[in-house]
Amino acid sequence: MIDDAPPLLAVRGRLDVLARPLIAIVGSRNSSAAGVKFAERIAHDLGEAGFVTVSGLARGIDAAAHRASLSTGTVAALAGGHDRIYPAEHASLLDALLGEGAAVSEMPFGWEPRARDFPRRNRLISGLSVGVVIVEAARRSGSLITARFAGEQGREVFAVPGSPLDPRAEGTNGLLKQGATMVTEASDVIAVLEPILGRGGGLPAQEPDSEALGSFGAEPADDERSRIISLLGPTPVAIDDLVRLSRTSPAIVRTVLLELELAGRVEHHGGMVSLV
User: Fold this and answer.
1) Does the predicted model carry a pTM greater than 0.90?
2) What is the DSSP string of 231-250?
3) Are residues 110 and 236 located together in one domain of the fold?
4) What is the pLDDT of residues 117-131, one digit of tens each?
């Protein structure tokens, strides 16, 4: 669902967690105690509401988010191959999350992650998720790269406010100035994502049926197809907005967009689409 999607993903763990609502939680490696505590709390609360946490297995905020959602499901996006875990001390954390979660990588086995592989990996963190929560981020950080990818992919961007005196909050405070949704508790995230997902009542966790595991294959009714097409025009619109405004499922919207793309009638702009 992203323009630069990898040709394949190697998945270890439970494949079914990828069909549930996923929310990314990322932040500073050099995190504050308050930042770690907040990441743990929001990851736990979102897990209880039915979300699977996505993060990058890094030190600091990422590790805190993974640990707090071990029992409800968490996904680690790896920068290297599955047998080249970075940082090495998080190998046990990765093993622990595989019971109820998964690890994904686009790199071949034996691939030692390099510096440029981490920003590349970040597009997978945002691409897998319906939204990204940035807990702490310096002015120049990988977390802000993830936020940028999220915006380009049409995902929701959430930021946790911090002290103007803490350099680890410069990036998140900057995102808020740019229009990111402010987050002080899990309900702030859920309130934004419920209409997009077309679900309510706290988003209870449940196992998807076999049809839910497929992105395509749903046959749109004529009125659904007409409703989706009527929402399109020459101005790009986010795919998530199409789902919300058409009051149909993501699978139906993707099917209609695929039909239009095959007919040469739709153009993609990151996570947005417009009529040609």
Assistant:
1) no
2) H--SS-EEHHHHHHHHTS-H
3) no
4) 999 999 999 999 999
User: Tokens in use for 139?
Assistant: 């002015």
114: left (phi over 0), alpha (psi -120 to 50) or beta: beta
> Distance between CA atoms of 72 and 66, rounded to whole angstroms?
10
The domain that contains 19 carries what CATH number? Answer: 3.40.50.450
Cβ–Cβ under 8 Å, residues 39 and 135: yes
Would you tell me how many other CB atoms lie within 10 Å of the CB of residue 199? 14
d(CA 94, CA 54): 12
What's the Cα-to-Cα distance from 31 to each of 11, 105, 245, rounded to whole Å?
A: 28, 25, 38
Task: Give the structural domain span for 58.
Answer: 10-197
Is the domain of 253 the same as that of 191? no
User: Which residues lie closer than 8 Å to 158 by C-beta, 6 or more apart?
Assistant: 131, 132, 133, 134, 180, 181, 182, 183, 188, 189, 192
